[in-house]
Records
---
Amino acid sequence: MSVQLDPQGQLRHLISTEGLPRELLTRILDTAESFSGVLGKSVKKVPLLRGRTIVNLFFEPSTRTRTTFELAAQRLSADVLNIDVATSSTSKGENLLDMLRNLEAMQCDAFVVRHADSGAAEFIARNVAPGVSVINAGDGRHAHPTQALLDAFTIRRHKGPLEPLTIAIVGDILHSRVARSQIHALLGLGAGEVRVIAPRTLLPRAIEHLGVQVYEDMDAGLEGADVVMMLRLQHERMQGALLPSEGEFFSRYGLTEQRLEGSHPEAIVMHPGPVNRGVELDPRVADGPRSVILRQVTNGIAVRMAVMSIVLGGQGEAPTEPLEEVAN
Amino acid sequence: MSVQLDPQGQLRHLISTEGLPRELLTRILDTAESFSGVLGKSVKKVPLLRGRTIVNLFFEPSTRTRTTFELAAQRLSADVLNIDVATSSTSKGENLLDMLRNLEAMQCDAFVVRHADSGAAEFIARNVAPGVSVINAGDGRHAHPTQALLDAFTIRRHKGPLEPLTIAIVGDILHSRVARSQIHALLGLGAGEVRVIAPRTLLPRAIEHLGVQVYEDMDAGLEGADVVMMLRLQHERMQGALLPSEGEFFSRYGLTEQRLEGSHPEAIVMHPGPVNRGVELDPRVADGPRSVILRQVTNGIAVRMAVMSIVLGGQGEAPTEPLEEVAN
Amino acid sequence: MSVQLDPQGQLRHLISTEGLPRELLTRILDTAESFSGVLGKSVKKVPLLRGRTIVNLFFEPSTRTRTTFELAAQRLSADVLNIDVATSSTSKGENLLDMLRNLEAMQCDAFVVRHADSGAAEFIARNVAPGVSVINAGDGRHAHPTQALLDAFTIRRHKGPLEPLTIAIVGDILHSRVARSQIHALLGLGAGEVRVIAPRTLLPRAIEHLGVQVYEDMDAGLEGADVVMMLRLQHERMQGALLPSEGEFFSRYGLTEQRLEGSHPEAIVMHPGPVNRGVELDPRVADGPRSVILRQVTNGIAVRMAVMSIVLGGQGEAPTEPLEEVAN
């Protein structure tokens, strides 16, 4: 998606992981790595984005997601403005464009956009002024690129380079913006094999064309996997015609210790959160030694700091000195 | 209104533009000019109000207006507290005074007040402790002084000194706190001629006594105007008896390219936003080359920074060095 | 309550004033004393908690209380995150623990917790990760320790050491988390005599065992008191069977100038706010020369800064130099 890169090939917006060059994906992870060091200190803050204004523009409420972006911005010393756009009339057309024009005129530097409609983040990115960046925090069923990047970052930290790895994504692939973004990010980073495991009713048509292996059988799909990425099952899906019941879903696709035995002995287990215990994962797995679910959350701050600093600053590296050394 | 000035004639509160001395109005605009330079840099921040606390005390919700004050405060490095006072019981009498006493006791330095009742900001200013300043962000039909000041600032930037200018204000003068504040600010700054253009039903009685020329006919009123300031038409007015319909209003008072031809060839077009396209302005005018509507938004941050720094610091000048030079 | 202290006896969480060692209570007040000096300056800010993240986790809404903690955190230069947990499903059990795990994973340093259920703050403290601190901002009828500490601080500032003082607490002791925390704090600090004054229906059983003197008669209880601490009467209690009417309550337990005559000639009058004028206090007393009610509010910021800095930093002293000297 060419809207994401400027003419020099630098990342200007992050809308999707689809089509991002491998070196750019790698640079984001490398930058996140440098921020991870900062976050381990007691002064978890760098002055990189001081005097810049980042707007959390949430057309769909999500305290959880907003919190991660707000923390990332604070730890880059940016000023943050939280705007919840409640009325549907403002979330489209002329009124939306007017709001963007106004926020740009107030010299805001970046918009973190969450929207219930697929394509909304790209629409906004195509309509913002030069010099303003857009970061997609989830748009409809389309994409959730920072989640996919933090997942890739977590895999790399625990399992090393992605080339030799077999990675299985399990659950409601059809409705998942997370799965879509994960597939593009992992393949873009050169992952050895990416599998999707789901009942036929929860698989998009022609998903094979993305370059993934498709499994309807959980045990076959987990065979030898180095990484097992579970998706969140939306409760509303389970009440529809696509799935008979939570219990039946768990019996076929829930991750248990027994099922994990077929995977690689050092396989890690991931989930974007919040976990429905007993639906997607057995609690013993979710809270067990292979789970890196909370590491994903921690890594999410560093990855979002990396994305913000790259789209706003064009820098690829965090400063080696945190704020305490710089300002005092 | 003497509540605004301290015994030394310094601005302590900004409640209204009425009666402000010309040199004080000029000083606000000059200070805003110096902040405009800061806002053009990537580090849009000065340490002028570090350690000071500014409270956005909004008795009437307005994300848009709150945002402009919040950004202005952040860019002065002040701490900001947003308090939305939802219940009507707290917005009056003893409960209101108790809330003020408490916020003062917490050593807050300034209240930015928005209230549906005319006179509320002045009431609060008359009741705050010494050392606390009040900035009116719109009170009923009474006043909206920062809007008027940013308008005057925008005119001065585009057209130079106000003395030779003919400025036309068009629309619902009767219900507009913006119009009232504009008239006082522009005449206070020595504007050559201020005209109001509206149907008789939307004009206050005896408006001439303020020193303005009154026109019911749009074309006559625009004749030779250097500046055309359109007002926002509130939808609720249009459903009442005062106005027959949006369509008829537009046909008589809507600003079109054709109508603009009667004004000065280099006339600028202004609007406090958000624009009702096709009601107050033809979209081609709103988005056309004469429109400075988005410049008003940009200037609004600098003007609000100027007002905050003057009422809190007594300084008339922004520092020439932004935060990066000062703190690092 | 041993959850509050770490193995070295340092304060890690503040859940209750019950059982806190006297030297620790004294250290909190001494630290607050040093912050009081900072708050009197125009730059009311110290860099003690720069780069630390404090989360206001409010399961029960209270703008007033949240504001005091937010200001305290800002003036310590901490980053603040406000999270209002609206849904009851998130306020308990697995979902609550998941939220805590996530906020910990985001490397938040402290949770300020307000909850309608008694024991919620302790539950959270027992379940947070090492390195994270919990400050109770009021849990059900259990405790409100920062209010009690700011009360003790206010008494010490106005009346000196607590040993020789007779302190009367008046009102709805039964339902008051404030009264409970005050009793423990005052006795822990060595107060000479603590009295509770209330009708039998508003006294907990066996309250004498805490070490207080019980009075049902207001005049007898106020006799010779150095400090009169009024409690807030919740309106909902007054509609129940426990109390006949506001008017009757005031006639028996309302604080008037006449009643105050029986107390020490230099007695001070306190109230945690907001005051129901004419119910708990005659307005002439609430706003009179003996009232230190607004000083309590001011002191509340310094005391909350002290608690935050102690649980997070382990320091007992505020820096002698405020931010301006340190950073510029």
---
Amino acid sequence: MNGAESLIKTLVASGVEVCFSNPGTSEMHFVAALDEVDGMRGILTLFEGVASGAADGYARMAGKPAATLLHLGPGLGNALANIHNARKGNVPMVNIIGDHATYHLKYDAPLTSDIEGIAATVSADVHCSQSSGDIASDAVNTISAAGRNKVASLILPADVSWNDNPNELPAAAPISVPQPVDEARIAEALELLRSSDKSMIFVGGDTVSAELGHQLSRVAQHTGSRLCLETFPTRVSRGAGRAQMEKLPYLAEMAIEHLKDVDTLILLGATSPVSFFAYPNVPSVLQADGCTVFELATADHDLLGTATAMVEALGADSLAPNVHPEQIPPAPSGELNAMSLAQSLSALLPENAIVVDEGATTGLACYPYTETAKPHDWLSLTGGSIGWGLPCAVGAAVACPDQKVICLEGDGSAMYTIQALWSMVREDLDVTVVICNNQKYNILDLEFTRTGARGGVPGEKAASMLDISNPSMNFVELAQGFGMQAKRATTAEEFHQFFSEALQERGPRLIEAMVPCVQIA
Amino acid sequence: MNGAESLIKTLVASGVEVCFSNPGTSEMHFVAALDEVDGMRGILTLFEGVASGAADGYARMAGKPAATLLHLGPGLGNALANIHNARKGNVPMVNIIGDHATYHLKYDAPLTSDIEGIAATVSADVHCSQSSGDIASDAVNTISAAGRNKVASLILPADVSWNDNPNELPAAAPISVPQPVDEARIAEALELLRSSDKSMIFVGGDTVSAELGHQLSRVAQHTGSRLCLETFPTRVSRGAGRAQMEKLPYLAEMAIEHLKDVDTLILLGATSPVSFFAYPNVPSVLQADGCTVFELATADHDLLGTATAMVEALGADSLAPNVHPEQIPPAPSGELNAMSLAQSLSALLPENAIVVDEGATTGLACYPYTETAKPHDWLSLTGGSIGWGLPCAVGAAVACPDQKVICLEGDGSAMYTIQALWSMVREDLDVTVVICNNQKYNILDLEFTRTGARGGVPGEKAASMLDISNPSMNFVELAQGFGMQAKRATTAEEFHQFFSEALQERGPRLIEAMVPCVQIA
């Protein structure tokens, strides 16, 4: 058995069964090993940012990491933005990065690169394997380091792949089981919640499940607290029958207003709220001066176990959680815009759908509008690096082949990783992509004003940096170029019809929704 | 004047007049400053890999760096692969990377990232500016560090952009002037060349100009040496009237054969030849055992000055360089394949054209076939990271608006940075893109065999990782989706006609050449 084969066996034995891949010459023995070893599904992508974003989406829905297979430092560089998003969202990922043979590195061939240096910027653990005899146990360490919510990277020199591994395979990596926080800390949090009538539980972490929402709703009701979700949750189960929760607004000014009456903030998996960007004369910290912030549990803890312990300590088991009713709106008519698009989404969303939200300004209306739709999962852009949505939808659909994936995607964001459409077709994934095409980086138009640059009014050159209407992109032609069925909708009726058709069929579809820019400021 | 304005003034004063940009919120004051300060051309790209590749192409042709404007660590990550290619090709680049405001970093907002860590892996110099009063002098240092052939990166926190710069602007960065090597070293090299009848001058560096080629031809003739170009030259002036030079083959086995009789290798701007990848049982070092390798000049030296000094020392000024005659082939007919495509290229190549070669296996025939075409410049993929060609063509066309740019592009490579087509249309660049569509990562098929993995024969899963025919991509539809005129050619006659039309018109055109896979092994 060569090193590559022992590596794949170890990955599979440890539950890493999907590898999103962009191989090159240095990875050919790993690629060859896919046929020699059972159990690993290799999924080819046309660009490494698709591979890492897909690994993110897969892990969010599968609850365990996928692997990526990347080609030296440049391949890792291409993957970096979506690895960043995963890291910020507490999503596990196992990166396998091919390198030159160990003895070849000293010659500084053209693709020689500082892989460890690049990987260290986004990884909880980086290791470069030095021999075929070690690669399997190295992989166990990497998978263990990834655990349930970390990025870990293993560098695989070509000769470590191709030489024989003479050793027995090690035991598989242990499954990472998070622990609830201790009783004393829970008691402290409950005391804080009870002693204030202006308290808030601020929840985040890798998954806010239906059960977690229900338990927290009981705690909030019993202690008279507010319950609020972080701005960009990694994964939240929501819709009819799920707990009602506030969500912290994106804009710092609105978030400050949202938190201004809170004097006690209990963090559960979320970090203390901060402004997404800095702006002149706007505070970075969003809670009010003097607000007590108590970190009850980090994203590393067992959040459901912690919430359940709180419910038990309060004796609140029998309280009914405060959940959303089901309210399905009628089909919209007239202009296709953010509101009518959101109305269609809410009206048609199938049960157990997975919504991947990179809809930017157009997508903003979709979240509140779908609160009372059929129950579903919602995935958000956790690290702020656009080009995540389409790849994430690939991975979510691979993880959950029996659930419809709906990807809300801005036109500007879509262009970062448009190659993901090809992988959707190749793997026949059940994804409906909705491109919100307003022909602008509309969020930047808003942000330009908010930063106060040039009095908030862009000049001609600046305006051209925010505008993507020249030339205008045609996403129907782009999708068809990747072999994907696609339609363009220009009215609410058209969108509703096309969206309904896409949901009733199985397989990849794209709808280009021609929408006006949302005016937010 | 705020920090951003003083930065742009300093860039322009130092000759950095083009900025390939993907701005985000943290860069809005820089964007605003484009209207407040004269002389900077901002060129929007849809993806940072296009920006860095375009900066590479611009610098190769302009002989001075462009700037990139990137959005924090993830934006830099997206740009990294093409920065790597520039670095390996001795191409200068000035990266301006926006960051959070200095006081905001400690809150670890979602886009907070280790920018310095990432930049350090590809930059000769990295600096994070700490105040608006320093940013202009920091920029002078960064531009100086980039000089004529290095990558340098300047991190620009948002508050450094927006706060006032109370200081006088510093003097512009001095123009970097390379030095020829000293006389003693030249004498040593000449002695080595004269004392061997199996010597070779191996040339590389950032530009092999017509003049440099002519001088080296004189030296080679006078000393009875061979003259050989490195495998992937950054920029070489070639065609009719240019010096005849060998080129070291890509495949290690062929390169070893090419060098086997050489006992004295004189390096001029090139590094010692090594195998591009390692393969089991193939040496990394390509020259014969016992061959004397003498590094006469690095890429940092004045290569033309060095060669001229050699000619003078030899008294060889009056020797006529050994140049290619002009031999223009007729139009091809029949099957469209690598050979007939190369024949069309050679027949139609306009004088002073710039050929950007990322044509992979199909492009291999084009280089030798165009030796006797009209004189032109040829740019190669220097760092081995694919997704360079289309962006490089953008930059080359911006630098040289009066020269036709021809981009030979593989289908697999094209998909890494296909967004470059949009920038070609937006800027109305005079680029003809030829997509060599064989629906395969054909180079990897070859490399699979060469690595000997699985006896050189891919299994079903491995074969699927090398195949991009399912679904097949349609580059005409993709181009049209970006607003670009495009045609598909399936015969040699069609290709010749479409290519001829594209060359006679001005502006961006794409031709999808449907070609069979080249069989190399």
---
Amino acid sequence: MNNLEKKFVVGVDIGGQSAKCGVVDARGNVIAQTRIVSNTQTEAEDFVKELAVALKGIIAQAGAEGQVRGIGVGAPNGNHYTGQIEGAVNLTWGAGRVIDLAKMLSAEMDGIPVALTNDANAAAMGEMTYGAARGMKDFIMITLGTGVGSGIVVNGEVVYGHDGFAGELGHTAIVRHNGRPCNCGKTGCLEAYASASGLCRTAREWLELTDEPSIMRSYDVLTPINIFDAAKQGDKLAQKVFEYAGTMLGMAFADFIQFSAPEAIVLFGGLTHSREFFTDAIEKAMNANVLPLWRGKVKIIYSELKESDAAILGASALAWEL
Amino acid sequence: MNNLEKKFVVGVDIGGQSAKCGVVDARGNVIAQTRIVSNTQTEAEDFVKELAVALKGIIAQAGAEGQVRGIGVGAPNGNHYTGQIEGAVNLTWGAGRVIDLAKMLSAEMDGIPVALTNDANAAAMGEMTYGAARGMKDFIMITLGTGVGSGIVVNGEVVYGHDGFAGELGHTAIVRHNGRPCNCGKTGCLEAYASASGLCRTAREWLELTDEPSIMRSYDVLTPINIFDAAKQGDKLAQKVFEYAGTMLGMAFADFIQFSAPEAIVLFGGLTHSREFFTDAIEKAMNANVLPLWRGKVKIIYSELKESDAAILGASALAWEL
């Protein structure tokens, strides 16, 4: 069978805890899926062997043997050009090493071609192929989760840059003096204000610095979920915590627009469940900080992929290009 | 003759005072050139008619009749997608209007195809085709003149974005609170600190705010040229003025790198004559503010095009793609 006649692709989303895997058809239906743990292995070889067994299992379950065109993998620090995972600190088998993941997995999978990229680029591919960015040639995907990730699409192609690592918009300087320390070692990065941990930090700081009454004072721990709960109950301080994150995002988005003039900025990730409390703040700050020619013109939209499938779909979208 | 067999292109660089025009061969030699004034006409039709006469003159002079593949035009607010100049405030015949320049010029030139873009994108094309960025697929061109312009190249193509206006990096927010007013109506833009007028403003402010001795105190007016003269004579304050502009550029470049991961940032324009006084400051600030993976890896380089030819070459490079 000619490779282009093959009707299925496989998507693999590797995270710090588990790897989600699925067999996907051209319409974006996940025909079969599974997940394996990714934090018990100390050697990449062991992880790849277990992954291959799991993939063969779901390919058989989907009745797709011999019909898989390619495997797309999204992974932290995944480099599209080299097929390698380079120094991924949150993988038990990846920290401080360069893992030849695409080559290793293809060998275990009887030569099925494997493409690799980072998780945010995979999300952008998924949204362009199956989701909210269908038909768009220029957009920016921002993932709001533990960190702030990004995948940039220009003229219908993901921007990889000279070395394969383009699109680190979470580390844009949003506060240039006395900024919060970021996990990357710098200070004042967008991620330190608009990620899940940034949101919690804002809440903690404001609870300490003010006497403003808040339901949040009764919580044992602060999480994005219980700050959201407080906001929904009308808690003004909790609402302001979300607005502050939205304002930081909006200021950063203004500069992103001036760079690549996207049609839309697409938001994805856990924090987007709380969108009702920050979308207005994003749009207000974005339009106040962008050149007049773009004011009111760039859409803020949200992922349309079912969250349970999104990571698999995003990674699988890569494989259609193989 | 098949259009691809034609051996010459024409480049036109439209500025607020004059339009420079040249006939260019495939090696980047300017075979014949001229310039016409661009600030006496009140109607675009008149400007285009005068331009066409001038172009026919240099085409005849170069012996290139019937052998011009296309005409590339760089102009303020030039839109590659539409071929229009949209609301160019510094053109006597352009302010507040949409000028169908590509179509009008092609009609006057007996149907020779015309491509249009803004001046910074044209500069990027010129550098990629004939200059310092030959062979590069990912770089950012920054023009340091009256304003700060930019042309972004990703994967060998100029980034135009959804609407054709991508690449307004001079309006990146570099000071988020109490920033200087910028000509665009915003405050704190890179252009307000790192353009020719930004440089002069820094000098004026520091001369007023401090008692630091400086040769500049004896000048009637401050210009980038006489600040440069002072710096060359060892004037510490003048040197710090350049370093400050370099630091602002370097901080902004760090975020640009995190966006598109370019191989190099190419600098062009009048201020680059003073490069000896700001290159170190750019590199220091850039490397201090970028993610560790790019530290020390992105080159700061300077245009290699002869300044008198650069604008024509840049615009002409567009025409090879027609």
